[in-house]
Amino acid sequence: MPEPNEKLVQFPQESSRDVLTEVLHRGAQQMLLTAIEAEVDDYLAARAATVDAAGRRGVVRNGHLPTRAIQTPLGDVRVHQPRVRDRRPVGERETFRSAILPPYLRKTTSLEELYPWLYLKGISTGDFSEALQALLGPDARGLSATTITRLKAVWEQDYRGWSQRSLAGRRYAYVWADGVYFNVRLEDTDNKRQCILVLMGATREGKKELIAITDGYRESEQSWRELLLDVRARGLAIDPELAVGDGGLGFWRAVRKVFPKTREQRCWVHKTMNVLNKLPKGVQPKAKAMLHDIWMAETTSGADQAFDLFVATFHAKFPAATACLEKDRDVLLTFYEFPAEHWIHIRTTNPVESTFATVRLRTRKTKGAGSRLACLTMVFKLAMAAQKTWRALNGCQLIADVIDGVPFVDGVRKEAA
Fold first, then answer.
1. What is the pLDDT of residues 331-347, one digit of tens each?
2. pTM for the complete prediction?
3. 3-state secondary structure 52-77
4. Structural domain spans, the chain
């Protein structure tokens, strides 16, 4: 406690933040300069043995390039980059290119990604400049309202190019499919809600990646068939081993025609919701726990026992609920024939659902009508940004076994007799 006559000195909170920001800014600038100097030193050291007839080094420092300002989330960082001169004969010369500071770089990658995220998260074009100035300071450059308009055009070109890319040589062990609905009113259609069809896959290396994004009429067989035929035409010639989706019949009818060798796995999250919706609320907690016991069983026989118990428990009073579950019995338990390490990934369509939760957030904030291409572009950019953070599948080394057709029983590899 202070003495009675002692005055407490209070510093304004905003001022403290400004001081901290300045310290971080200076620290970032010094770290960048140090890293670039070290990069040049390493480059020169690797070529120190290169000398001419007079014993002079062939690759040396040659002053500095003009000072360059790089926009970062901490504000402009000014860089005085060393220049490298290669004095060797013309045919032997190399051009030094910094991996840290590529030529013509004016904004950090994180700042470049900030632009689409601000817009796609709900910042309108008119408020874009103000939002960036609040983040980067009033003296930040290149923040006119037309910036986002130009970027939108670039994003649309990116989406077109991505959706037409070759898939030749690609191989997916698993694919996840889902139709995602958005409350976006489109200018060029009578549909009030846009349905985006999403196809994701697991590569041989165990990485999850987007395969296709397009719009469709609800989740009809025709819409899914067009998407699947398109990816096959672009080079996806080999059927995936397993497809994971909800109970929408349109996708399953389409996949049986386009990829007839692909096994089917119904999403347990969707199935659980569908079954619980046919039960009174007072019964739902018990039913949910019993459904959980089915797909969490360690073996197929354990799942079958839990399945039979659920049907016996609820069939008499709630036949609609048990019928909803029983009709997909086989395709709900397909995952037991794949590695146990992968079960957490292939029992549900969560890879799609979790990714597009953020997309729905953006569309709830969007007002007014938008074009079909604008909606697809928005979904594409958010999904591609999210893809950078996706983790690999558990037991990714087992993906090769799945692709090679190695049999698994109750999640365990079946050794040859």
1. 999 999 999 999 999 99
2. 0.69
3. CCCCCECEEEEEECCCEEEEECCEEE
4. 13-92, 109-161, 165-409
